[in-house]
Amino acid sequence: MTEWHRTFLQNFLIPPHPQRGRQLLKESTAFQCVLKWLEGLQIKPRVLEVLSGVEYHLRVSFFDVTYRHFFGRTWKSTAKSLKTMAGQQLRIVFNEPVYFHMSLNNPNLIAVVEVVAEGKKRDGSLQTVACGFGILRLFSFKPETPDSPAQDRRLRLYHGTPRALLHPLLEDPIEQSKYLTLIENCYIQYTLKIHPLLEAAFHLFPENFLVSGLQKIPGLLPPHGETNDVLRKPRLQKSVTWYLDNLLFNLYPSLEKFEEELLELLSHDCLREDGTTLEGKAVTIQERRLHVGVHNGLVFVQKPQVVVVMPEGEVPLSRSGTLNRKSSSLSKISFRNQSLVLRSRIRLTEMVNNPAFAVIFELEYVFSVPSGVSGKGASVTSLSNMAYMHVIRWAVWNPLTEGSSKKVVTLPLRGGAQPNPSRCLVYKIPSTTMSSEEVKKVELGTIQFQFSLSSDEHVGTSLEPSSHTKEEPQHSKKPPTSPSSKSPVLPHTMSSAQLSPMGPGLSISQLSASPPSPARSLSARPSLPTQVSSQHSTSLKASQGTQEELSPGIDGSSSRIAHLEVDLSQRFPISDFVSAEQLQELPFTPLHAPIIMGTETRSSGSKLSRASLVLLSTLGFPKILDLSKQPAEVVDPATSVKFNPQREEGDVLQGNEIILQFLAFSRASEDPKGMPWPKTVYFTFQFYRFPPVTTPRLQLVKLDQPGMTNSSSLSHVLVSVNKDGSFNKDSPGFQLQYMVDSGFLKPGEQRWFIHYLAVQTLQIDVWDGDSLLLIGSAAVRMEHIVRQGRAAVQVSHELDVVTTEYEQDTMVVSGDITRPGTVKPIGVHTLVRGRLHLTLANVGHVSEQKSEDSNSLPPSRSRIISSSDGTSGFHGGSLLSHGGQRALKNVAQARKLADVDSELASMLFIQKQEGSKTHQLTSKEADATRKRKLERMASVRQRESENDLGLRTKNLLAQHNVQVQHSRDLQIIDAYRERTKVENITNMLSLVITTHHTIYATLGTAEFFEFALKNPHNLQQTVSIEIDNPELSVILDSREWRHFKEAAKVYTPLEEDMFHLHDNHIPQLYLRPKEMIHIPFKYQTFCIDHAVMMQVGNQPCLISDKHPETMLPWKSNDIPTKSIKVSFSVSSGKPIAILCVNVEYQPHVVDQTFRFYHPELSFLKKSIRLPPWHTLPGAPIGGIPGEEPQIYVRCSDPNVICETKKMGPGEPQDMFLKVAGGPSPQIKKFFVVLYRDYWLATPIQIWQIYLHSLQRVDVSCVTGQLTRLSLVLHGTQTVRKVKAFTSHPHELKLDPDDVFMLSRNSVHDLHIGVRPQRSGSRFLYLNLVDVDHHQLVTSWLICLSSRQPVISKAFEITLPAGCGKGANKKITYTNPYPSRKAYHLHTNHPDLLQFKEDSFEVSAGQTYTIGLRFAPSHSTGMEEVLIYINDHEDKNEETFCVKVIYQ
Fold it and tell me: What are the tens digits of pLDDT across the range 394-410?
């Protein structure tokens, strides 16, 4: 038995309850539980009489209280004997750490700890006896953080065994159940804390797997030092890459016979379950898949790769006709067309030189079953064929134990009811009881392949030398690899999809289990390149002539699928087939249309008319004044701004008060009349790094000023709404102020803020205050409020509020996809909904610095840190400085020893007595009353003691006992001091070599600094650099080091090949005696907590006089901090220097905001077109065409896939986004960071993206025809007054459409009627709002798919444009039915066409004249107006098309 088989069979895992698997999984959390000792166990005498050599061990298992289900793996500790201590209870010391990681965070998941005694009976056999069990709640309390000291806890034990938890009468909380009895004075001392260092080894053992730190885990190196705990700080073994080629399967007696028998058995099995006939149909094989993965006996190290294998006879000769294989005994008895072959290479990057690591092969068949055969009735929406998968055979290859010297490997296949790594049912194996071992291997089937350790070596293939040289130029432009990070991954590709473990072969059927229909084959084909890297793979070039090769069969044979396979290896492997033709990559075009950034941030830029300015000045808006109480200078928004940074730096008014005035919001003439117009609105935006702002609801009050023209854009003014719903017209507008001065800005940040005003655009989202629907977004450039030496400036804007409608992902693309630059997306519609009147102002203020003390300033932002710059922790001597000023940081407050050490507190007798004296009265009157009562009590006791000598003797004994207890406590304290003296002195001495440095980090920005390390010894040393946080790293690449030095203008020496990476990826460097060198460090983070990154309140400039330091922005307690320890140790393990880096996070600037509404629990796939690179901040002026730099992208959420691709010269770049949506009404928020430099040093833009997950309702209907359906409303915990709102009320009708009561915990029906006015696929939004509290109760996303009805008649009319006169027309309609009918009239352009009568009745065979009224148009053009004639049930009878030409 090999090491892998032994590990695999000894570590079976029971999965959690199936209901738990349906829950939304979270990130797995690592835990460390140290079981210290067991105390107070009472051993039954009869047990000791029967058993000899009794030892004790602990068993730990996971239990689900909700479903009464044990899961995971029971862990067993080492056996320990019982130790007795004089004067104490019986104690069994274990001190064994247990580790596990779990993603199921539920308080009903517990750990059960059982105490078991084992000994030998008189006959020599081993006997185990249960001694009790304890219930450990994992998630009912907050575990200790890794930095906090571990707090000891006691686990109480119960009589019996853990099987008592399965009793049906046991209810939660089980600790309070009457069926469980506690064991008195018996407990287990333990600690439980989160252990983040274990995350590096998550891939080496499964979830819910209890493992001891003393157990050997395949893939981990032995621990450092004296400890044997391999999981306390896991160190991974170095991985190697293996390549597998020319893989083929041979099945007995032949592939045809084997599959024929398999299909026959499956068909009969389906018939037996369903009991119906197949009616000429049968189960067919749709696809043959191969899963290949590396397994360490416990778990798959990475997700297995999925490739497609095909019968050798079906592979085209141009690709497989020259397939070479070395001759073997197996290949002689198998025919060419009786094997399953793989046409691509398999690349395994996770192999480790460990005997427990093995390669697992699983052959899986995908079967296509006719509807109704599988025992499930076919629904109306089901496809014609259903697909399901079965594992047919599997094999395991252990290279180290089975030999890796052979280049050609042949393995026997396995099957049947034996354990396998995927823990699934496998197809039966033939009976081989009468066969020899050699015949058994042939009858079970074999797998044969060739392997190598080099990516350039292809065993068994003959390659021309020219093929190598021809491929070199294609990947010679590969960007250099940055070894600064611990993983050898390119910085710009770590978040891209090309590093997905899927591959190297993907088929269309992986994207949908059922075969796609011929109509959808063309749209499904281009989706494959989204999973393929542009740098490390090839794409497919398809023309119309070869279209039938790339899509499913058009002839109706749905089971035959032609597969598109690509290789996802990071290099370009030469094909295994000599005559194979290298496919050329085409310009990639996504299926979804890119979102042009200009449409999101479009601003009209138009200035207000003179009439509007006069009207605004008379409405009574607050005036903006400077410090001299003079009106601020008015700036024309149409004029260009010349920004001079020197003028801003020389301005005496360094403080800036930014004022935003929301004046009016008017409807745009382009807004369709059928769209709803709000009564109240509110705005959301974020200015600089202030917290996001949501304004109060503002009432839209219509202006009825005399003399207003119809063309005036100013129609509604904004007024604040009171709590009672009323508003005051005398105080219009809404104003916000931001004070930005030296109290808010960090030193040196003033120029950043001025640059932000000069180049950035402020985006404002406008919301309907009643329906809570997004109306649109507006954007305004802030360059006009840069004062440039003026006291105050103000500018008034009229901004277009633009809404963008995105079609569903199945969009069409116009143009020739083989020609770059000709593809144009169709389906993104923008519409101007209204115009926002906004005034921006900047009032200068004198910046007052209250204190010039250096303590009020943050630490120096110097890039060079050394231990001699005064930042070390302690310089020796007294804790208090002997100078005139006391060093406050070295003052320590005295505390009781019992409060410092919990173990010491548990052994002291007087702790509780002293604790009772802490609560004393503070009032003088209460103290006097208490003193008087005590004096009376003392006099009474004195008289009693004189008369009672026995009582006096008792008091003397009590005093003697107290003295004995005090004496014993003093001895314990003295022993405690001796035990901790060495540790405290060591910690004090380590402060001498500790240097502190503070950095201010923002999202995505790399903070660079150098640490001057000096060798204090007279001997050369090899120094290892250990960092306890991966966000701080040593810059290993000299090119990256040079880039940061040039950017930071640091002129220290630079060395090539300074560092050597140890086996565990720890950098090491060589130091000569007394030598000093500069070590480069880089701190960069992409993971932030959205809840704490924003500052609290809008007044960060206020500073308290009592504690000025703690109130500064960089000292605020609201901003999270992090401490990172860097240890510089020599070969003996002793540190020569310690660097403590304190990280204080600062809010970042948001340049762009996107909001997407998408169905819940589905993937959002979007493409955002990046702006031209020369318009981004920091881009040089001018430039040579075709030399546009590559844009790199990173995301703050590691679960979001985003990437950019370098297109052709002059082509725009798109950022592709793939996000998994959560359940409704979850809103996912994340940030996307864009870079222009390869080393990801400084972001050029930061985007904030919101993904609103809504309940999806699919509606398929006909344009102009009413489709009715109902939605189910579930009541909340309280009674609410609610109302339903829709984004398209002219197309979506609601019943009830007014306010109604939603009873608590009840079910209501909301009836909706959909009448689309145009065909296509698009989204409609439906909100249910609490009208009292203006809260969103629930929301739906109506996914509308409408088709146009058949047009029976067409007309054409010509009307004059610009004359202001409409036209009356008439058409006739004849009732074709033999009875009288009622009809209703509708149109898709109610703004252009009105009917004389909306409904009419016609007798049988009679003709009715329909009167039409066409509205005038102010512009020329052509419109197609549809007239829908529907019956009494609103079903479409006929459709007329009127082509109206305005000229």
Answer: 999 988 766 555 578 88
624: which 2 tokens? Answer: 């903006």
Find out whether 236 and 221 touch, Cβ atoms under 8 Å: yes
CB of 342 within 8 A of CB of 292?
no
Cα 193 from Cα 34, distance rounded (Å):
9
3-state secondary structure of 1446: strand
- One-letter identity of residue 1369: K
Please state whether the peptide bond connecting residue 1223 to the residue before it is cis, i.e. omega within 30 degrees of 0: no
Contact partners, residue 307, CB within 8 Å, separation at least 6 = 289, 290, 292, 342, 344, 346, 503, 504, 505, 565
The span from the CA of 1301 to the CA of 671, in Å, is 33
pTM: 0.52
pLDDT at 509: 35
Q: DSSP string covering 862-927, please?
A: -SEEETTSS-BS--SS-SS-SSSS--GGG------HHHH-HHHHHH-SSHHHHHTTS-----HHHH
DSSP-derived pairing of the beta strands 1353-1359 and 1436-1446:
parallel
Q: Assign 467 to helix, strand or coil.
A: helix
Query: Which tokens go with 698?
Result: 């503002």
Q: For residues 636 and 785, give the distance between their C-alpha atoms in angstroms, rounded to a whole number.
A: 11
Q: Is 130 exposed, middle or buried (0-12, 13-18, 19+ CB in 10 A)?
A: middle
Q: Are 1216 and 495 spatial neighbours (Cβ–Cβ below 8 Å)?
A: no
Placement of tokens 């250990």 in the chain: 1026
Using CA atoms, how far apart are residues 84 and 91, in angstroms rounded to an integer? 6
Among 804, 812, 715, smallest CA distance to 520 is for 812
Q: Is 515 a residue whose pLDDT tops 80?
A: no
Alpha carbons 277 and 920: distance in angstroms, whole number: 89
pLDDT at residue 705, as a whole number: 58
Q: Each residue of 970-992: b (16+ CB within 10 Å) or e?
A: eeebeebeeeeeeeeeeeeeeee
Dump pLDDT digits (tens) for 174-190.
888 888 899 988 999 99
Helix axes 924-947, 949-990, angle to 10 degrees: 130
pLDDT classification of 279: cutoffs 50, 70, 90: low
Query: Could you give phi then psi for residue 941, rounded to 5 degrees?
Result: -65, -30
Identity of residue 8: F
Q: Which residues pair with 397 in a beta bridge?
A: 359
Q: Are 787 and 813 in contact (CB under 8 A)?
A: no
- What are the backbone angles phi and psi of residue 1121, rounded to the nearest 5°? -125, 160
Q: What is the residue-wise DSSP string for 1029-1040?
A: -TTEEE---HHH
Distance CA 345, CA 243 (A): 7
- Does residue 495 carry a pLDDT above 80? no
Tell me how many degrees the CA angle 1238-1239-1242 measures, rounded to the nearest 5: 100
Residue position matching structure tokens 């932000």: 756
Check if the beta carbon of residue 1033 is closer than 8 Å to that of residue 1082. Answer: yes
Q: Is the pLDDT of residue 303 over 80?
A: yes
Task: State the pLDDT at residue 1094.
Answer: 35
Bond preceding residue 253 cis, omega within 30 of 0: yes
Contact 394, 413 (CB under 8 A): yes
- pLDDT value at position 304? 93
